[in-house]
Design brief:
Two copies of one chain form a homodimer. With 200 residues, the first copy, chain A, is mostly helical. The first copy, chain A, has nine helices and no strands. Chain A binds a DNA duplex (30 and 30 nucleotides) through helix 1, helix 2 and helix 3.
DNA sequence: TGCGAACTGGTACTCAGTACCGTACCGGAC
DNA sequence: GTCCGGTACGGTACTGAGTACCAGTTCGCA
């Protein structure tokens, strides 16, 4: 058997094991959620299928809900990085325009794996607690944008309102796309476009 | 002793008892939350101070979080009634204008008891789970507005976007008022006003 | 006064989440 | 190769939320 292609970073055994455990947990959890629904799956069930101890589950994820968002985490963080790197615009329309681009790009990344997106949206649709939690994630993103705008010298009003409006457009687009990954980015972009209609 | 002024509806004893139990629970809960914080209070603690059984607590409130929002419920429902009674405008700017008036009025009612509003906001500030739950409440209100707009023949885009934008303005105003009940309504109204700045 | 319905509080249970502890394993030094 | 320190692991035991069930009481009404 040939030696496997040496990956760019041959992670130490310990970390590889951890990464594998993490993946096993996520896989087991999504399987079980698909089979029985979120509420009918216990952490013990997940741990058993993932072949780890119940305690270990909580070492990787703060609570049962966190597993559902584990894959989104990295994508969302990329959006914050992107905004920090954007030119320092501080007026309302300018800030919203920047956030529009970020939001649309975020949508594209969230829907690269269409099937995963569908599963995720389905879980949110069926479980209010998960919708709540999703809201918290986006609120965190909004707060980062707010802080960044304040750092750039934007007025408190702009710093608060721009990310909040952007979040509204994202949410509106998400609702209008109705779970279809192919429509999300377009629907969100369209929602931003309609804001002009507010000027009368 | 004079007979107490006969209230408009002399509720039957049973319902008066229930109302009293409910009030005792709410009072006990807010006292305890103020003393120790939300997380450090157990349902058993609340039930004991309210002098009801633990089971009874769950008969009045679905879960521990619900108590925190019990007083807001009626006020929020009034907002939906008000919107349903408003003239049937279906364009984006018109719908947002109507929602602006509703939102500002809602703010006034939420802050009539300034001290209660402050306590409530403090709880939300310190407990992410409660912020999540508050988000769910407003999402429910948003969905009612959405359904009403659809009933009136508004396009799906307007029906979805207008309430979402209104919610964003409410949230922005809430953040800018920074827990001060006297500034809430003004800050929310101001947020709506700034939307014009989006037209460039 | 007495009957049916509804409310009450208690018991017992499941499950999420936390604290603690002994064990096993990895990484590095010799 | 071997030893050692740190870290991750899984098990046990606990608290507290929320649910199901049940027997006793109280209210509304005839």
């Amino acid at each position: 058997m040939l030696r496997p292609m040496p990956t760019s970073e041959p992670l130490p055994l310990r970390e590889r094991k951890q990464q594998r455990a993490r993946e096993q947990i996520v896989t087991a959890a999504f399987e079980l959620f698909a089979e029985r629904g979120f509420a009918a799956v216990t952490v013990t069930d997940i741990a058993e299928r993932a072949e780890v101890g119940r305690t270990t589950f909580f070492r990787y994820f703060g609570d049962k809900q966190e597993v559902v968002f584990s894959d989104e985490q990295a994508i969302v963080e990329k959006a914050t990085t992107r905004f920090r790197a954007a030119p320092p615009v501080t007026d309302l329309a300018g800030a919203v325009a920047q956030l529009r681009a970020i939001a649309v790009e975020l949508c594209r990344e969230l829907t690269v794996d269409g099937e995963h997106y569908r599963r995720h949206e389905r879980l949110l649709r069926e479980n209010p607690e998960l919708r709540d939690r999703s809201g918290r994630k986006f609120a965190g993103l909004r707060d980062v944008f707010r802080a960044t705008l304040l750092d750039r010298g934007a007025s408190p009003e702009v710093a608060v309102l721009a990310p909040q409006v952007a979040l509204a457009c994202y949410a509106a687009g998400n609702a209008l796309a109705d779970g279809d990954p192919d429509r999300l980015a377009g629907a969100v972009d369209d929602a931003f476009g309609r804001l002009r209609g507010l000027a009368r």
